[in-house]
Amino acid sequence: MASPLQGRSVLLGVTGGIAAYKSATLARLLRERGADVHVVMTEGATRFIGPDTFAALTGNPVHTGLFEQTESVLHVRLAREAHVAVVAPATANVIAKLALGLADDLLSSALLEYRGPLVVAPAMHSGMHAAPATQTNLETLRARGVSLVGPVEGPLAAGDTGMGRMSEPEEIVVAIEAAVGAGDLAGRHVLVTAGPTHEPIDAVRFVGNRSSGRMGYAIASEAAARGAAVTLVSGPTHLPDPPGARVVRVETAAEMRAAVGLVAEDADAVVMAAAVADFRPADPSTAKLKKDAGPPEVRLEPVADILRELGERRGHRVLVGFAAETSDVEAAGRAKLEGKNLDLLVANEVGRPGTGFDAETNRAAILSRAGDDQPMRDWTKRELAAAIVDRLAKLISR
Questions:
Q1: Using 50, 70 and 90 to split pLDDT, how confident is the model at 386?
Q2: Cβ within 8 Å of residue 261, ≥6 positions away
């Protein structure tokens, strides 16, 4: 399927941070998706990576100065020709400029003139990111409809580790595609659930599972990139919000059920990728249970099966479920597909190293009520997300 960036003009702003080298990969990925990429570099950015690198990758001249001699007013032309603009990396300084409307160089002038979708990928040291001024500026941009991608935790300059590392180029591309929209899910609403649920035993302990939420987040990102309005109901995770998705965070199965119930009726498709608890403590304590009292007797009770309830009143919605199994994976998945009245079920093999929960890959089959299954194989989570969204997009369009 063609990317929504095919034939689009992308204004890529690169500012002065160590993460500027990643923007070369970003430029290449954008070109591979058919975009016409025009790079504007700040003076600081040129100290980390040379303009010739971007010129070679994009096939276009790289602009670095507000007063370059051109046949037109350069910052106006750049702003008017761009279908989408992205700043990666976006330093604390350029974020402050964007929030305050300053225009003292070519990039900030072009962005002040620009009126289309804007994606910003912050990158800075953790202290600068946590500063109240930066947080206020980020909130200002968010309120204006700017798509913020990251930052994430990881290695930083000066040998430190913390929040402030720029998101990976692949994630930024997803955000740009989502901002452009006009994919095969444009005008559709997709509800995705992700992550585990935590069912309290007492004030500090809970019953949970090993789900990281990465699969559901990948599906939410893919659906948003293809134009859908995405609502992601997420259990406890440490993942950043998927670009383009509205995220509702919950903790327990009951909270997830309530959140899903509020939006499911308006959804064209529901993808239940969350690993919702099957049982919960019947009488959780509001205080911490003391170990001196000995092991507590924890009586479990079943929780509501959210997906089964949706299947019983499915209406027009496309329903996609997940099943994590350690044996007889496809047979168990087929039984759940039919028993819960689903369109698709992703049968995941778990319990062995390198696949399933919190791994880069899944070993899974996509089972269909129509019988056109995709057999068990190894997938990256991004590959599996794309395959799932391909299937539900076709089902929605029928």
A1: confident
A2: none
pLDDT in tens, 347-356: 998 867 666 6
- Report the chain's terminal Cα–Cα distance, integer Å: 18
3-state secondary structure of 169: helix
CA distance 173 to 164: 19
Q: What is the DSSP string of 224-275?
A: HHTT-EEEEEE-S--PPPPTTEEEEE--SHHHHHHHHHHHGGG-SEEEE-SB
Classify 390 as helix, strand or coil. helix
Band of residue 44 on the pLDDT scale cut at 50, 70, 90: very high
How far CA 145 is from CA of 115, 166, 203, in Å, comes to 11, 20, 38
Among 171, 166, 136, residue whose Cα is nearest residue 151 = 166
- Taking the C-alpha atoms of residue 146 and residue 119, their distance in angstroms, rounded to an integer, is 6
- Closest-CA residue to 296 (of 204, 384, 188, 396): 204
63 pLDDT higher than 80 = yes
Encode pLDDT of 360-379 as tens digits: 788 999 999 988 999 999 88
* More confidently predicted of 126 and 260: 260
Q: Classify strands 152-155 and 161-165 as parallel, antiparallel or unpaired.
A: antiparallel
State phi, psi for 359 to the nearest 5 degrees. Answer: -115, 165
**Between residues 184 and 38, the one the model is more confident about:** 38
Q: Peptide bond preceding 89: is omega within 30 degrees of 0, i.e. cis?
A: yes
What positions carry a catalytic annotation? 209
DSSP-derived 3-state class of residue 116:
coil
Cβ proximity of 381 and 214 under 8 Å: yes
- Residues 276/197, Cβ–Cβ less than 8 Å: yes
Query: Which neighbouring-strand residues pair with 192?
Result: 232, 271
Nearest 5°: phi and psi at 37?
-100, 130
How confident is residue 395, by pLDDT bands cut at 50, 70 and 90? very high
Please report, for residues 51, 109, 162, 289, the alpha-carbon distance to residue 46 in angstroms, rounded to integers and kept in the order given. Answer: 7, 18, 25, 58
